[in-house]
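Supplementary Methods, section 5.1.

A reviewer requested that the exact input to the structure prediction be made available. We therefore reproduce it here, unchanged from the version used in the analyses.
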Amino acid sequence: MELNDLLRAAAIDPKRTFVLRHRPIEPRFRRMLPLLAGAKLDLFEAYQSYQGPQMELSFAKRLGGHLASFIEYEPGKAVFVALYAIADAKPITREQFWAIPEQIELHGLGNPGWTEAERREERLHFDLRRLPNYEDWRGKLIIEWPPHRSWGRRANETPLPVLAIREDSAFAGELPPWEQLDYGWAELQVLPTRMKAALEQWRGIYLIWDERDGRSYVGSAYGSTNLLGRWTSYAASGHGGNKRLRGRDPSTFRFSILQRVSPDLDQDEVVRLEATWKLRLHTRSAFGLNEN
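The structure derived from this sequence is encoded cell-by-cell as follows.
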C-alpha cells in the first residue's frame, strides 16, 4: 500500500496534493517539532503556514488542492501529521509576521522565522485547513521517504510506501533515562505526554543552569505533583517564585535532575539532600543563584 492509495480512499486527488516532509535545519527546533505536533498542534500549524520561496511557489500552484503533512521520523522515513486543504493565500509583511504571537513563541523554541537575511518585502500566509481524514493515525502512520528526495513532492509523481502504523504516537515522545534529561526553559512548555507523567511521579533534587553566565540554582521537588509541579511553575513564570531568579531571562535556563529519591521519602529528608547539593555545587556563593 502507498500513500496515494490512502489519498484516493479519502476522495483526495493525488494530482492536486503536495506531500511535505518537515525537517528544520536548526537542530534545536528539529527536536522540538514532533513535540509541537503532539502537544501544541496550533504552533506546528503556525510554523507550517509559511514556507520558503521554492515551497511557497509549489503551495501557491495548489490553491484549492491538498497538503499531506509529515515530519522526518528517522533516515528514510516520515511520520504523518495531518491532511490539509490549501484554502487560500495572502501576502504579509515582516512587521505583520512578527506581530503574530505564535511566531514569537516559535522563535523562542528555536525557529528563526523571518530572518534579516531573507530580504523579501512580503511572504505568503497559507490558510491550511486541517481535515479529519486519518486523524487517528497522527503520529502513527510511517511512510518511506528516500533520503535523496527533497522536502516536498507532488503526490501523484511520488510512490511513498506505507511502512507501518504504530500502536502509540511518535509525538508522545520517548522517555529517556532521568540522568540524561536536559531541557531548555521553552521546552518545558511543550513536554511530551510520557515525560509529564514521569515527572509527576518523580521527586528529587534538580538543577537550573543559566547558560548565559554559568550560574546555577539547586531546588527540590516533592508533594502531589513532584518535579512536574515545580517545572511547570518555572514554565509559567520563568522564576518559580525564587528571588535570585527573578529579573533573569529564563530563555537561557536549562533544567536537569541531580538526584531522584523514593516517592514516599519524607519532605524533611528531601530538603536535607537539597542542602548537600547546594553545598557541593557552591550555589549559595556569589557565583550561585540560591539565596539560602
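Residues 267-281 form the longest helix (15 residues). These observations are discussed further in the main text.
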